[in-house]
């Protein structure tokens, strides 16, 4: 069993900073490899990983998860997804337990919001006002040019008095609504910073009580990870986890893990159903039950009717 880490969140973050400061150091085997601590945000009770480097670090630790974000360049499709990486409850809990992940708590924006934020808001509104005046002047000039062109086409030589009169009327009656102003929208950024507003939006206190059987699933998940297997959700296969001998990009799943309490009764019809399902998808069904010091496994294979 893996030893539980007693490090707190500030200690883990400090370790992460110390590792970043040591970047560039070399060892006997080559450059020192940086292992960043994975920051875990919460949206309600769902663990999310946002930074690309931390998504890669989670993959290197055998934490697969699933990408659920839309791509900025291809937003109207769901074949290829991007960040954030959604973790299962067991994956997020395991990262915290082994000291490789740290929960990012929700931040009260009223506590951290100061003069700097108010100055930035005021500056933003001032920039919007300046942009509005510039666009209003440009729209008026464009309308005047259009009026001059139309009057030139209707008559060969319009008088100066009539032309000035039309321009004055246009000047007085011209209206440029603020809703017509063009506003620049940022579609890319150099990186996502853990600012107070982002953390408050993406983070939430996991106050939702754990479902019945979540502790059983976590113990099974942790034991299989310690044995070197990679796991993903097996909702479509009628189990709790799909068990891979390595990275799911390189291997097919060999097992369907079904997590049960040691004293839980399972009807024979359910045993036959899950065994036949495993046979149809060419996988072995594992009945996994945590005991006091280990996890007990029972494999099921459908051999047909006798």
TrEMBL record:
EC number: 4.6.1.16
Any one of the GO CC terms: nucleolus
Ranges where the tRNA intron endonuclease catalytic domain occurs: 215-294
Protein location: Nucleus, Nucleolus
Domain of life the protein comes from: Eukaryota
Domain TSEN34 N-terminal: 38-99
Active-site residue list: 244, 252, 283
GO biological process: mRNA processing; tRNA-type intron splice site recognition and cleavage
Catalytic EC class: lyase
Entry-linked Pfam families: tRNA_int_endo, TSEN34_N
Quaternary structure (record): tRNA splicing endonuclease is a heterotetramer composed of TSEN2, TSEN15, TSEN34/LENG5 and TSEN54. tRNA splicing endonuclease complex also contains proteins of the pre-mRNA 3'-end processing machinery such as CLP1, CPSF1, CPSF4 and CSTF2.
Homology family: Belongs to the tRNA-intron endonuclease family.
Protein's recorded name: tRNA-splicing endonuclease subunit Sen34
Organism: Osmerus mordax (Rainbow smelt)
Designated gene of the protein: SEN34
């Amino acid at each position: 069993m893996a030893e539980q880490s007693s490090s707190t969140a500030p200690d883990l973050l400090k370790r992460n900073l110390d590792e970043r400061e040591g970047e560039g150091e070399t060892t006997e085997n080559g450059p020192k490899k940086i292992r960043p601590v994975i920051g875990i945000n919460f949206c309600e009770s769902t663990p999310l990983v946002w930074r690309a480097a931390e998504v890669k670090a989670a993959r290197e630790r055998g934490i697969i998860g699933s990408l659920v974000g839309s791509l900025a360049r291809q937003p109207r499709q769901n074949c290829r997804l991007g960040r954030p990486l959604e973790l299962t409850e067991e994956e997020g809990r395991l990262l915290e337990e082994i000291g490789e992940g740290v929960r990012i708590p929700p931040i009260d924006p009223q506590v951290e919001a100061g003069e700097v934020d108010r100055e930035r808001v005021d500056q933003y509104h001032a920039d919007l006002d300046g942009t509005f005046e510039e666009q209003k002047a440009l729209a008026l000039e464009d309308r005047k040019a259009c009026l001059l062109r139309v009057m030139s086409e209707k008559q060969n030589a319009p008088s100066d008095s009539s032309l000035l009169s039309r321009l004055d009327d246009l000047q007085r009656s011209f209206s440029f609504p603020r809703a017509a102003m063009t506003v620049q929208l940022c579609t890319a950024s150099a990186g996502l910073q853990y600012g107070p507003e982002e953390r408050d939006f993406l983070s939430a206190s996991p106050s939702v009580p754990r479902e019945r059987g979540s502790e059983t699933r976590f113990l099974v998940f942790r034991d299989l990870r310690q044995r070197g297997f990679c796991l993903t959700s097996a909702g479509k296969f009628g189990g709790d986890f799909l068990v891979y001998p390595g990275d799911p990009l390189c291997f097919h799943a060999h097992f369907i893990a079904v997590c049960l309490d040691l004293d839980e009764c399972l009807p024979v019809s359910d045993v036959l159903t899950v065994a036949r399902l495993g046979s149809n998808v060419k996988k072995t069904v594992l009945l996994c039950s945590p005991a006091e010091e280990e996890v007990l496994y029972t494999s099921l294979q459908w051999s047909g009717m006798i």
